[in-house]
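pasting for ref
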Amino acid sequence: MSNTSAPVSAALPHLVTSLPGPRASAVIARDHAVMSPSYTRDYPFVIAKGDGAMVEDVDGNRFLDMNAGIAVVATGHSHPRVVNAIRAQAEKFLHMSGTDFYYENMVELAEKLTALCPAPAPRRVFFGNSGAEAVEAALKMARYHTGRDKFIGFLGAFHGRTMGALSLTGSKAVQKQGFAPLLGGVTHIPYAYCYRCAYGKKPETCAVECVKVLEDTLFKTILPAQEVAAIFVEPVQGEGGYVVPPRKFFDELQAVASRHGILLVCDEVQAGMGRTGKMYAHEHFSADPDIIALAKGIASGLPLSATIAKAQYMEWKPGAHASTFGGNPVAVAASLATIELLEQELLDNAAQVGGAMKERMQTWPGRFPIVGDVRGLGLMLGFEIVKDQESRERAPELRNEIVQRAFHRGMLILGAGQNSIRLAPPLVLSHEQAAFALDTLEDILGSLSR
């Protein structure tokens, strides 16, 4: 039931039934009969409508969405300017397949995405429908350009579930179990997960062993550098636990790639499009990737992805790679409206509201014994739940309990990694809504820490 007895602001949660309510229960029963059991549902939320950072279920319960549809609805649910752009394009034409014909707004979006890249260089764009497709295009492009067949990925990474993207993924065993053989030639190394450094180092004194292992060991033993086409890396690791690496990680990674003619691919599917307070997350590290993979927040909820590459690497011949629906004109119109909103106001809001949230959250390890680490950039924030701060033993069951309690308080959050919680709200999140989210989490953390 509601945690408040009086009507509250429409910008805050309000529960009117037990959860799930009767209509939600009925929909869930129907879902169980016909939908794939591979879908993961952490709690029984059945959406009816959304507005900004708020969503309402089929029983009239109102929730604060701190997931943004899994970091997708960057401009909030059904932003009127995005809806108007979709409507205007839909009235003109819905589809024409940009891989076989031309239409102007697809060219306009490609021009915009390349112009937004901070490092000046001619670039080209391939449009797909999902993050996995963007990664697949990058895999194929790297092999096509370099003539090499091997790749380097990172433990904890998530790049998608299609066969090539899944081969790069190093997140959870269940995602790969039963699907072998996968794409050969992928080697995974530890990410710069400084709270749990694989080499027992501290960020301020490490020699970036998580990158130097390539030249110090792997290239000398099992992985000839001249056979490696690309290194795939998330600027901020998403599914791995919202892990933010130090700047020197990217400095070293870029240097190694450059020395050996290896392409550097930044998977910005979750971290890109303003989520970290900058348009592209790699800007925080002054990185200069050869290829960028984008999706999720790029079109505020419509299916669209983009693989952006320096022009000399996207040199494949007509027919080498294509997509019937990639760059759909309606999705492109939504993306152009999304980018306009990001530039005008939402990048700043993500940086400011997210910065204020992180500052408050960084007090949590000192206040709540079950919080081991707090990290993030902009409105891509994570915190890690442990049994004991000294041992840093993971507490996944406790993390799951926090997720459930938040739901029953009118807030949608999700886990990330083995024992972390991610906060990835729409970038329209207000300071009032951020305060509610943190007040609620602090109350839950306090009750579980006693």
